[in-house]
Amino acid sequence: MTRGDATGRSGSVTFAAITGREEAIPLRVLAERAGQRVFSVTLAPGERLEQEADGHLVIVALSGRLALEIASERRVLSLGQCAAIDDEVAYALEGAGSAPNVALGVAHRCRGRRSPGPGVVDLIEVARGASGRGVLWALEESADLNVNLARLEAGDEVGSHVNDDVDVLLLGLEGEGTIESAAGRARLGPLQLVHVPRGAPRRLVADEPFSYLSLHRRRTGLSIRSARHRA
Fold first, then answer.
1. pTM higher than 0.85, yes or no?
2. What domains, with CATH codes, occur in the chain?
């Protein structure tokens, strides 16, 4: 699959590349299931989107620059930076770059829980400065969302398994990997997104040093092992 606006389907695993377009719809829902909502936002320079978080929300900047406003606080998100927003908190996003400004949002609806508040993490900076394998960063503030930045060395894999509990999103950040399902194989590179519904089998192999973001509702995590030493 090449980058662009097309979406391909391999079995029940959906692959998509999200990039900016001048004519793009400002907010587009990519998936909605069991209290979880995944959407993309594309804003032209100066264009503004105001709404209330419908669930505990994580926003990741994919292209350009986006100004995030919460109450009197304003922060600018650049490529690879993410922010966590609490449930029912009003916020605004504004296109702050010269090109189309694109963000990915993942919200989980679970009323009554509170996190300490929004924060910004530069995921690209963390990934580029890392070596070795394992989890480089994890979202600790949310009791509902599990968000991890993981890194694999070339040849490492997250072994074949069936996810029975939750939908999972994988977002490539640095390097390339290959994701396999019963229907075939697809490459996963920077800013390419994979949606894996629960019940769908998958296997992820790093073709080179590969960093990616994993997002889902909280459950027990997966282990990373070397493909060269699997039984």
1. no
2. 22-111 (2.60.120.10), 124-218 (2.60.120.10)
